[in-house]
Give the backbone structure.
Amino acid sequence: MNYHKYQRMYTPIPIENRQWCNRVIEKAPIWCSVDLRDGNQALYSPMTIDEKLEFFDYLVKLGFKEIEVGFPAASGTEFEFVRRLIDENRIPDDVSIQVLTQAREHIIEKTIEALDGAKNAIVHLYNSTSTLQREVVFKKGKEEIKQLAVDGAKLVKELVDSKLKGNIRYEYSPESFTCTEPDYAVEVVDAVNEVFCPTPERKVIINLPSTIEVATANVYADQIEYMCTHLKNRENLIISVHAHNDRGTGVASSELALLAGADRVEGTLFGNGERTGNADIVTIALNMFSQGVDPELDFSNIDEAIEVFEKFNKMPIHSRHPYAGDMAYVAFSGSHQDAIKKSFDMFDEHPEHKWANPYLTIDPADIGRKYEPIMINSQSGKGGVSYVMEKKYGYTLPKAMLTEFSALINDLSDEKHTVLDNEEIHTAFKNTYVNLTAPIKSQSYSAQNDDQTTIVSATIKYDGKPSLVSGTGNGPLDAMCAGLRKLLGIDFEICAYTEHALERKSSSKAATYIAIKDNDNEQIFWGVGVHENISTASIYALISAVNRMLIAG
C-alpha cells in the first residue's frame, strides 16, 4: 500500500494547560437529532413526507427538544414537510425545529419562507471555511469567505426580524471546521456573532463540525477547547459539535468535545449519515447512562428504536452495535460466560448494590433486553451452559455434572463447526441424562417401611423382558440400589444426590440428580429424573444413571 501518497497534516494544536483531559462528563448535553436532514439525505431512497412525519413524532417521544427537520430550499418535499409540521400544529411547544441553509441569498429567502408561523425554530446558517475548500472549490481568499458568512448572517437576521414572529434562534457552522485554521475559524465566527448579537436570553449556537474526520479524536478536542477559550462572548454562546465518522471515532470525538467545553451534540440514531455516518447518539447517550449520568433521552425500549430506524432508513443495525446489536449481550467465551453469570447472581442477591459486571457495562434489562448466551460454541464453558439450563429450563446442575455436560456440549459444537442454540442444548441434556428407559425401564414399584429399613418391590423391564426386583435398604433409593445390584450383577453405589423444583409454583415438577460410582472401575455416571412426585423422580434419576453405566460398560 502506497502510504507515501499521504501526508500527516493534522497534529495537536498548541494549547498550554489544556483542560479537557482532566474532566469527566457529568451531565447530558443539549441533543439535536439530524436524522431527518443529514441522515435522510444519505439514504438511497429518502423518506416520504408521511415517513418523516412519523419519524419526527418518534424523535419527540424519545425526548429530543431540538430536531433538524430539513433543508427547505433543497426540494419541494423538504419545503412541504416543514410547512406540514407548522400548519398541522405537530410541533410541541417545548420542541424547536431546525432548518439548514447555505449562505446564499435565494436559499436563505426560501428557508425563511418555510418557517412562517413557527413558534420555536433555529435557522442554521453555514458556509465552508477550510483551506482546501477556499482554494479548490470556491477559489476565494479568507476575507471573501468571511464576508460570505457575514452577508449571509445579515440577510438571515433581516428576514427573521421582518417576516417571522416566533422564537427564532440562530446557529452558524463554519463547515469543514476541522480542516480550518483555528485562529481563522475564531475570526469568522466572531464576525458572524457581531451580526447575530448573542445575549444571555438569546444565545447563538456555534456548531463546529468535523465535516470529515481527518485526525484522532484528541485533536478535535483541542480544536473545541481552543474555540471555547478564544471566542468572544463565550458566555452567550452554545458550542455545538457535529462529528462525522470517517475514521470510525465519531462517538469518541463527540465525547472528547464535551470534555473540551461543548454544550450540544448533533447526531443521528445509530450513526446514519453521509459516507461513514454521523456520531451515534444512541451510543453516546447510553455511554453516559452506563456511568450513572441521566442522558435525558429514553432508550428503555431499544428494540422499538431499532424497529423505527430500520423501517424508515431501510438499513439494518450491525449485530455488534455496542448496545443495540443482536450479539451485544451474547458471550461465547467460557470464562466470560462464567463471570457474567456469577455477577448476575451477586446482583440478584444484592439489588441495592451499584451495577457491576465484568463484561456488561449496563444491565440489558434497562433497555428492554436480556443477557442470553443463546448460542454456545466450542469456546464456551460452564457459565454459558449453566445460564441456559437454569434461566431457560429451570435446571440447576450440580457442579461436577455441569463440568461433564459442558464438555459434551463443546464436543457437539466442535463436531458441527457452529454454535448450538438453547433448544439444541436442552435436547442434548434430555437425551443424555433425563428419564432414560433403556436398557432398563421402571414399570412399577412400591416401598414398605419395616422398623428402620425399607423394602422395595418393583417391576423392571430389562432388554424388553419384565423382571421382578426386590431389595432392602435404609430408604427407597438404597433399597432399589440393592435390588438392581442383584438383578444386574454389578457393584455400584450412590455418591451424589440433589433435588429441586423446576419452577416456583406448587404444581411444579421435581428434578433429581443422582451420581453413581461403578466400584469395579471407579467411574461416575450421572442421571436425572423429572416427575411431579419427588420419590418417583428419584427412582427415575437412579435408573437413568444405571442405564448410562450399562451403556458405557
